[in-house]
């Protein structure tokens, strides 16, 4: 395992000046790359009328006239507080349950011995291939049959168990020295105690990775809330933003203010967990499940 | 006991719907429709193959994937190779290119809708500044899909770049050192050492990217609603319209089953390619 954050050795040596030149070139590209984000931020701080008018010049990136009250207006023109609360609740509960349920299953696959274990694990991994979109119609029927349309339960429960997170936790648990677990068994500790007192405390990086991936996935999800919610009071932030955007034909700056607010929590999580998100192999394994189930 | 919660949830919300897709697809079930459901065999599949809208949706989706995947993979590879040179400020650059991947698709769509605005959008104002006539972008029949492709590339390249960087990190230094001793220059090392050893990563990126491209929905819903004239109506958009808007449940299930088969086939082909590449 390579340590995170270490730069890999260069296959050939470039002179310092050349590397500086490439860095400057990429820096210019990075500025262009982030320009749409800057445009969103700046536009949220100026009158709606100026936003489109300024789009053709550098003024698109300069917040004048300065209108910070757009943010207060945004909260007044859409139930944004309600959307934020809905998303926060759904994300937090899904995340909490997901950490427990999936790590428990992974413990069974990594530590416990029972007949058919490896076959069952292989079946779990095989399920990784099912794309969410392929099962969304019957999933809708199931959730409808449970009477869970327009409910938090409908947004939360289907996303708690996750085959990829089980896989990820298991890989991590396998690296915990077996002797540690056996010694605890000899001391008479139950598996639940070992899971809680030994395995989980040693698995902070795995817990953090799953927490970040699941936070971003749930907070940013549009498709599923869009399918099962019609009651505006249950809207999540993404659904609320999409509906506000499609219904609003004049107050563009307010749409941008909502977009900024909606993006902030993920940005914070990203800044805190950047080292985990970028440059870790765990993320690479997780690629297939990004933004889906 | 440890497996019970996860096992139960997966059975209800993953295994059962997967089986149900296949089961529903051979019936005439319609949500909210009165009357009994009949088994109709492969009739839904036959109808799909003759449904011009479905065929258009497949064509749009495959076209999108064929354009988006090479674009995103090659851009991501170029960025990763450059960032692998131990550039000053490399960490910041990497974070900058990665950032759009954590924006939600809805937010990205909202931002880009103003860049693409037909009269006053940023792109059109830049074009008129250069003396080029305005383009319709999202409202143009030929331009809507590439316009969504550009947005998708902006959002996803950073993610594949990070995967390529992780792949580059796995390449043992000895290989290029040995090549350097043999007198290989930088380009030769890249061509004959780095790129061949990066093949499994490349295959992974292509497959993940392809599957993600085939799942295109939210960008389309936010920006074009499948239009103009169905030019951006993707497979998943078709699936949503048929299954949940028009309530042709069984018909949509058949389309979903075909979508699943497509994803399955691509994944299996990738596994073959990677195993062949690794010389196993």
Can you tell me about this structure?
The complex is a heterodimer of chains A (293) and B (280). By secondary structure, chain A is mostly helical. Chain A has 2 domains: 16-73, no CATH class; 78-289, MetI-like (MetI-like fold), CATH 1.10.3720. Helix content of chain A is 68%, strand content 0%. Chain A contains 15 helices and no strands. Chain A has helices at 16-43, 48-53, 70-77, 80-110, 117-126, 132-145, 152-156, 163-173, 178-186, 191-202, 204-220, 223-228, 237-247, 252-277, 281-285. In chain A, helix 3 (70-77) packs across helix 14, helix 4 (80-110) packs across helix 8 (163-173) and helix 11 runs antiparallel to helix 14. The longest helix of chain A has 31 residues, at 80-110. Chain A is globular. The relative contact order of chain A is 0.14. By secondary structure, chain B is mainly α. Helices cover 71% and strands 0% of the residues of chain B. Chain B has 13 helices and no strands. Chain B has helices spanning 4-25, 43-50, 52-83, 90-98, 105-115, 122-129, 144-170, 173-181, 186-197, 199-214, 218-223, 235-245, 249-277. Chain B is globular, with a radius of gyration of 23 Å. Chain B starts with a helix and ends with a helix. Chains A and B meet through helix 1, helix 2, helix 4, helix 6 and helix 11 of A and helix 1, helix 3, helix 4, helix 5 and helix 6 of B.
Summarize the structure.
The complex is a heterodimer of chains A (293) and B (280). Chain A is mostly helical and 293 residues long. In chain A, 68% of the residues lie in helices and 0% in strands.
What are the main properties of this structure?
heterodimer, A: 293 residues, mainly alpha, MetI-like fold, 2 domains, 68% helix, 0% strand, globular, disordered C terminus, B: 280 residues, 13 helices
């Amino acid at each position: 395992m390579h340590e995170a954050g270490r730069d890999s050795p260069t296959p050939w040596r470039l002179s310092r000046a050349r590397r500086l030149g490439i860095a400057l070139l990429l820096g210019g590209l990075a500025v262009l790359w982030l320009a749409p984000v800057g445009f969103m931020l700046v536009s949220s701080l100026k009158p709606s009328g100026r936003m489109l008018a300024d789009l053709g010049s550098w003024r698109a990136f300069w917040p004048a006239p300065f209108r910070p009250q757009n943010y207060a207006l945004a909260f007044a023109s859409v139930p944004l507080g309600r959307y934020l609360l809905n998303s926060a609740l759904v994300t937090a509960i899904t995340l909490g349950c997901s950490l427990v349920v999936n790590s428990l299953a992974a413990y069974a696959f990594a530590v416990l011995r029972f007949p058919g274990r490896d076959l069952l694990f292989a079946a779990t991994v095989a399920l990784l291939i099912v794309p969410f979109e392929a099962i969304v119609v019957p999933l809708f029927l199931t959730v409808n049959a449970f009477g869970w349309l327009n409910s938090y339960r409908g947004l939360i429960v289907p996303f708690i168990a996750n085959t990829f997170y089980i896989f990820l936790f298991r890989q991590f648990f396998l690296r915990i020295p077996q002797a540690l677990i056996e010694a605890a068994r000899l001391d008479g500790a139950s598996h639940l105690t070992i899971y809680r007192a030994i395995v989980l405390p040693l698995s902070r990086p795995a817990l953090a990775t799953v927490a970040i991936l699941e936070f971003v996935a749930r907070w940013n999800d549009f498709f599923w809330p869009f399918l099962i919610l019609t009651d505006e009071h249950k809207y999540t932030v993404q659904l609320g933003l999409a509906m506000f955007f499609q219904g609003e034909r004049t107050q563009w700056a307010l749409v941008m203010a909502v977009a900024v607010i909606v993006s902030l929590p993920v940005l914070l999580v990203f800044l805190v967990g950047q080292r985990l998100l970028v440059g870790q192999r765990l993320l690479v394994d997780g690629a297939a499940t990004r933004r889906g189930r | 006991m440890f497996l019970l919660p996860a096992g139960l949830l997966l059975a209800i919300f993953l295994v059962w719907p997967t089986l149900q897709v296949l089961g529903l697809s051979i019936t005439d079930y319609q949500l909210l429709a009165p009357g009994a459901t009949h088994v109709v065999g492969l009739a839904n599949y036959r109808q799909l193959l003759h449904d011009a809208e479905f065929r258009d949706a497949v064509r749009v989706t495959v076209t999108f994937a064929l354009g988006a995947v090479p674009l995103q993979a090659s851009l991501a590879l170029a960025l990763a190779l450059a960032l692998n040179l131990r550039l000053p400020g490399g960490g910041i650059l990497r974070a900058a290119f990665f950032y759009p991947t954590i924006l939600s698709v809805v937010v990205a769509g909202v931002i880009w809708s103003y860049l693409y605005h037909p009269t006053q959008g940023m792109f059109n104002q830049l074009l008129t500044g250069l003396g080029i006539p305005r383009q319709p972008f999202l409202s143009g029949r030929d331009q809507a899909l590439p316009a969504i492709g550009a947005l998708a590339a902006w959002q996803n390249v950073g993610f594949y770049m990070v995967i390529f960087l992780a792949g580059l990190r796995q390449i043992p230094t000895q290989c290029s050192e040995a090549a350097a001793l043999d007198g290989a220059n930088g380009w030769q090392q890249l061509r004959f050492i780095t790129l061949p050893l990066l093949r499994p990563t490349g295959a992974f990126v292509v497959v993940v990217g392809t599957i993600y491209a085939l799942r295109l929905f939210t960008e389309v819903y936010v920006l074009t609603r499948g239009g103009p004239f169905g030019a951006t109506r993707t497979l998943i958009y078709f699936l949503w319209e048929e299954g949940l808007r028009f309530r042709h449940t069984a018909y949509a299930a058949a389309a979903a089953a075909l979508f699943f088969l497509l994803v399955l086939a691509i994944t299996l082909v990738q596994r073959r390619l990677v195993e062949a590449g690794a010389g196993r």
